Amino acid sequence: MTREHWGSRLGFILAAAGSAVGLGNVWKFPYLVGQNGGAAFVVTYLVLVLTIGATGMLAEMAIGRAAQKNPVGAFAVLKGGLWPVTGYLGVICGFLILGFYSVIGGWTIAYTVKMVDGTLTAPGLDFAAIFSGFVADPLEPLVYHAVFMALTVGVVLKGVSAGIERWNKILMPTLLVLLVVLIGRAVTLDGAMAGVEFYLKPDFSKINADVVLAALSQAFFSLSIGMGAMITYGSYLTRDQNLPRSTVMVIGLDTGVAILAGLIVMPAVFAFGVTPGAGPGLTFITLPGVFQQMPGGTVFGAGFFLLLLFAALTSSVSLLEVPVAYLIDELKVSRRTAVLVLGGIAFLIGIPSSLSLGIWADFKVFGLPFLDLLDFITSKLIMPVGGLLMCLFAGWVVWPVMRREATNDGSVPFALLPVWNWLLKVVAPAAIAWILIQGLIG
Length: 442
Prior knowledge:
There is one protein chain. By secondary structure, this protein is mainly alpha-helical. It has a single domain, classed as Hydantoin permease (Orthogonal Bundle), CATH 1.10.4160. About 75% of the residues lie in helices and about 0% in strands. It has 18 helices and no strands. α2 crosses α14 (about 295-330) and α8 (about 160-185) packs parallel to α12. It is globular, with a radius of gyration of 21 Å. The termini are far apart. Keywords: Membrane, Symport, Transmembrane, Transmembrane helix, Transport. One of its GO terms (molecular function) is symporter activity.
């Protein structure tokens, strides 16, 4: 079976950035900024993304391109032994995340529709009650979950070049245009400059261990390190790509989207006197109230949730592609069969995830509702363990291969090669171990 490849360098950059850009950039990043000192958190995050984040992303791309295989096959080809277990962790992790990520992706479709049809724009609404009532409904969220999963399946079904690459070339530029338009509206609101100052003028006295951990965790999870996505996408690269340069461009796009999203949210919440540290409810509870009060809020609210939808979709595509690549490479299953079967199973996983927020809320495993259990298993266990093992593998076990890939067999200069080696061997594993330990005891 001939291996698919990206049709162009730009296509790969946009697809890889689309994989990294997700709900974490537009939903989670702004409220973390609000909870962790504003600009001080932003600066800390940027430093960690450009060090720990870049280290892991470049390593995953290099592993994938060197092996030209899915995560399991890549570790088997490069070393074998027990190392393919690391690849299995990535495949399982991405698939489990997709099961509940698609449910939340469905919420973005629902809220886009509700903005347009006026459900979220009438005066005197209790947005907390609207959101809790929506997610607890046994049917409506599942309908939107099915729509979101169908969109994801439709893109991946077309393949690497005709599907993933083609749609990322449409979705990513559209996402960036929406960001710019929404920023233009947010920063021109009365009182918005207070939010801009909070967001861009750092008070370094606010940086402490908790802020650093929050920024480190966001950098790690935002770039999808440890779930095999960049190994899979890297495996579709040709040998002439400059991996360090591609890494910088992907991280630049991913981080840029997060920073720009903050420039929408922070000015808006400050303009209407809303606390910036509202937490996860900032997007689905607080912001609809802000849009309701904003002139032209219906249009801009719909635009914001459409932006959130595009970000979710570009990530969900990579979440599905990882296990699909495994079935194609290792079990010789056709793409069509792999996508339809895995998409169907992921949809079924999403059913108890959604119902656990409503009629199945009292059914708990290890004291956690089903969606929270999947989130704990993936974000607190599998991703950190997988990311830790991947860095150790790249830095200590197959370093000659990493050096060759990063320099294209010595033909491309990479001045930071010794620094990358040190980060892979020591700093990144220590940082990820800290995330793992804090996640388990926190």
